[in-house]
What does this fold into?
Amino acid sequence: MIAVIRRRARRWALNGAAAITLGYILTPLVFVTWLAFFRQEIPSFPPEGYSMRWFAAILDQPKFVEGFRMSFQVGVLATFFGLSLGVPAALAVVRHRFAFRVPLSQLLLMPLIVPGVVLGTAMYVFQVEAEKGLDVDVLGTFYALVAGHTVIIIPWVVRLVTASLVGVDRSIEEAAQNLGANAFVTFWRITLPAIRPGIVAGALFGFVTSFGNLEMSLFLVGPGRTTLPIVVLQYLEWKIDPTIAAVSVVQILLIGIAMLITDRYVKLARVV
Amino acid sequence: MTDTAIAHGPVVEKRRGEGLTAAALLTPATVFVAIALLAPLVILFRYSLNEFVPARKMMVEAVTIANYIKFFTDPYYTTILWTTVRIAVLVTAVCLVLGFPLAYVVARTQSRFKNLLIISIVLPLFVGNSVRAAGWMVVFGNKGFVNASLMGLGLIDKPFEIMFTEKAVIIGIIAVNLPFMVLSLQSVIEGIDRSVEEAAFSLGAPPATMFWRVLWPLALPGILAGTILTFILAMNAYATPFLLGGPLFKMMAPLIYNQFTQQTNWPFGGAIAFILMTVTLLLTVAANLIIQRRAAR
It folds into this structure.
């Protein structure tokens, strides 16, 4: 009897500790969401009432709309390039043996561990040198920004596509080839559908990483070309109000939806 | 957060022309990352050996380690490095203690809401540090939730100063890094067979003994991965110290940004970037060795 009570108490203690940690992680999101619905502009407690008007107020500030559009465009383009480079690389890493296989695959994952600020400064000086050497505009251009974001998307694509490729049974592809399919048809009809979950997950994670990137982008944006996280940072440096909270809520919702979609294709528990 | 798939990919028999196919598949990505990541790092290192003429705000080509010496001989900068290391160590320790129970519960749960649980851990990761800093501003501000609640209850007369202090920065960075720690631990705990825990219990081990003698050693790879990741991220935190610490509070990443953009001192900024990377790497390797030696005993 006592043993049962003790075991139950332990279970409650464990779940309680877990709940506290989860609560801690979610606290900032809860409060920023709460603020977005305040009626008054100053974030003081208790709120004087609730209102939805701040969501409409976002549209009155073109910098948010512009920042969102810039982040979205950069994210989509960089994800496209990241997939075009990353998926073949993942195929090579899993399916082929060659010299320097492990160091090369580690190089592709390296952008994940180089700190954002260092990545940004390094790319900045590289662009300065490139501009000097090539005599074309590089610094602060849209395409330089996309190239930078492609670098941080590649590791996600490589990692997630690699994970899903390992689970694919090679004999199905061999069967297709025995039945007369050439390499291209085999890839298109057999391999690609099999690794689609990995590609979808890689694309979504890559896009979301790009969309939320702040540290590296700080060095790469040019005049009149600012991404949403930088607009948010600069606004918050100045003040916090329900408008910026509403911007945050829109961002949380979009990313939450992206996560739910990803989860339908691949179990998130297995890929992160 | 392991890359076992790459380290132990299936062994494929060698065939003719395979080297060519592999090269065709791999070369574009490798060349791109080499140009866009390695080359910039090399140039940044070269810049860090240049000289800076403050009067003209100009960089002069040179080969000198003066920038590195300047950093380590000026207490202003060494204090910033020390603050950063101290905060990173503290944050990592707290993340491990707070993260373990949640990771364990997520790994062992049979609930059909497990995916929702994981999404709620991953979501904050992707929402961005500024948004989460905004959340803490609402909590900590002078008229924020904590101060309004405590004053409303009559527990304090005037607001606590939390915003723009080291406390706020530490609380903020812990929240930013916890998901990484939880996910690293959870993926390893999930691979530990439940029956080894039950075996320990049925042999009469109390929970604490079971934890230290069974769970902890088996989860060590995840603990290492999680602490390393958390430590690196804390060392490099930018948005959280910038927004929650205020203009006077300094950590390494904001310092680099400041040297680069405000002072336009690229050589010194580059040197600080490499000092930050090297110190992070050395401390990570040292911690790794200590933990592994302990575990081997």
